[in-house]
Amino acid sequence: MKRPGSTVRTASLISVLAMLIAAAARPAIAAETIDPAADFRAFRDYFTKKFPDVPLNDFVNGPASMDADLRRQWQSIDDFPPYDFAVERGKQMFATPFANGKTYGDCFADKGIGIRQNYPYFDQTGGEVVTLELALNRCREANGERPYSYVKDEMASLTAYMAFTSRGKPFDIKIPNDPRALAAYQKGEQYFYARRGQLNFSCAGCHVQNPGNHIRTEVLAPALGLLAAMPIYRSEWNGMGTISRRFVTCNSQVRGVPLAPQDELYRDVEYYLSYMGNGLPVAGPGARP
Amino acid sequence: MQRGHMRAPARALFVAALCGLMLLASGMAFAQAPSPPGQALAFDRAKGNCLTCHDIKGGDSPGNVGPPLADMKQRFPDREQLKAVIVDETRRNPSTVMPPFGRNLILTNQEIEAVVDFLYTR
Amino acid sequence: MRPMTMAASWRGRGLLVLAVLLFVAASAARAASSEADFKAAMAAADAAESEAGALKNQWTTTEDALAAARKAAAAGDFETAVADARQAEALAKASIAQAKDQETAWRAGVIR
Asked: For a designed S-S bond to C69, which of A148, A268, B73, C84 qualifies (C-beta 3.0 to 4.6 A apart)?
């Protein structure tokens, strides 16, 4: 008759072996290649199939592209756009030199005019994603000026003006053939689809699974072209807000502690979403309920 | 004199014991305080916040991310099944956007039971 | 005649002992949450929230519970403080579980 101890030992050995085999079988997922171009096609097709009556370029209007009532409201706002003051202010700031005599234009290609559609880009020197907001504050610091808050006010005015000078130009986000750029792209993709916050929402939960539906009275925007109209004047905010502001508030709304504005993950998800919106026209600054 | 000297400490101890018992009893009573009725929990933005996604009779400006919550007795004859949806719907539907009110400690078990009671009136 | 005091009879002594025991038990139950208990509970909660922070997945409600715990402790209400700290630890651990699960589970929702 077998002793109880040896049965236990055999069972343990078998389970350890089973775990090792299972572990060895896993790497198939990790070895998956990153193919942004294929992702881009699948992403665009998903939305155009889901909303066959929405013209492709219309997706940049967010909830207004999903809902006839909102579209009417949004069109009527266009006569006196609430973001006009921000564009004017941004234009003034661009024209005003720093204490050292340089201007914002000196930090950018084409004097910073008509370049919004190229942001964000992957900086191969620094090995990181550079967004327009980040570039603006780096410009300030490089010229002896203190950086601005990323979420509103001056930053919103600057990005509103720069977006305005690019209105209608198709987004042209590049992912260089650099493993670090692909890694940043994938980190952004992961951020977008991962659940977070006590309420367990992912960005995709609202913007991929439920565009056009509404939470309370708020119509959810489609992820396709989600950032194309930023920065926005949002009635709910009674003011302007940047991409940074929107990321931070979305995090809090699902009871997640927001990351610091322009955190690496925020820049990565901006990179991912902007790339998914390639070809769509710059529509900033925008107006939202 | 002997009389007063011996009685006072004994009486004091007895009174102290009574106070101790009352303290214990009050502790137990606090733990069993009744929770707000289910409707209040369901409609409270900081609690169930159900109207954000569901149309429920008695609520205003509902969202439509989830199905309307009506005919609940017919749709969920098994109370434990309805409770499970609130506790953690990802177990039944991994891609759901319904928050796991139990698993993520958004509502207590008592609160979930109260919400279930309320839903069965819709 | 000398009056019978409580301590003078066996029944009286038994009652006294019972009374003392009850009082001590009740006081002990009430005083279970001391400052030392709070410090231990808070350390556990803070450690868990730190881990969640390293995973970039903290919850606002965890932070609220931690703040409530500190506030109660500062007011000397260690009973509440310990309860809040334990709740904070539970929330932090749930947020860690979420982050770890999502490290692979995120792929399920990707548009293909």
From this structure: C84
Report the distance separating Cα C95 and Cα C52, nearest Å. 6
Q: How many CB atoms lie within 10 A of CB A42?
A: 14
Looking at domain B35-119, its CATH superfamily turns out to be Cytochrome c-like domain (1.10.760.10)
The residue of chain C nearest to residue A200, with distances taken between CA atoms, is: C98
Q: Is B64 within 8 Å of A214 when comparing Cβ atoms? A: yes
Any idea where the domains of chain B sit in the sequence?
A: 1-33, 35-119
B25, B31, B33, B36: CA torsion to nearest 10:
180
Q: What gap in Å lies between CA C112 and CA C109, rounded to an integer?
A: 9
**Chains contacting chain A through 3 or more C-beta pairs under 8 A:** B, C
The string of pLDDT tens digits covering residues C49-64 is 999 999 999 999 999 9
Q: What pLDDT score does B18 carry?
A: 59
Q: Which residue of B has its CA nearest to A219?
A: B63
Contact yes or no for A217 and B61 at CB 8 A: yes
Give per-residue pLDDT as tens, B26-57: 444 444 455 569 999 999 999 999 999 999 99
* Domains annotated on chain A, with CATH: 35-83+169-288 (1.10.760.10), 84-163 (1.10.760.10)
Indicate yes or no: CB of A198 within 8 angstroms of CB of B99. Answer: yes
Share of chain B above pLDDT 90, in %: 70
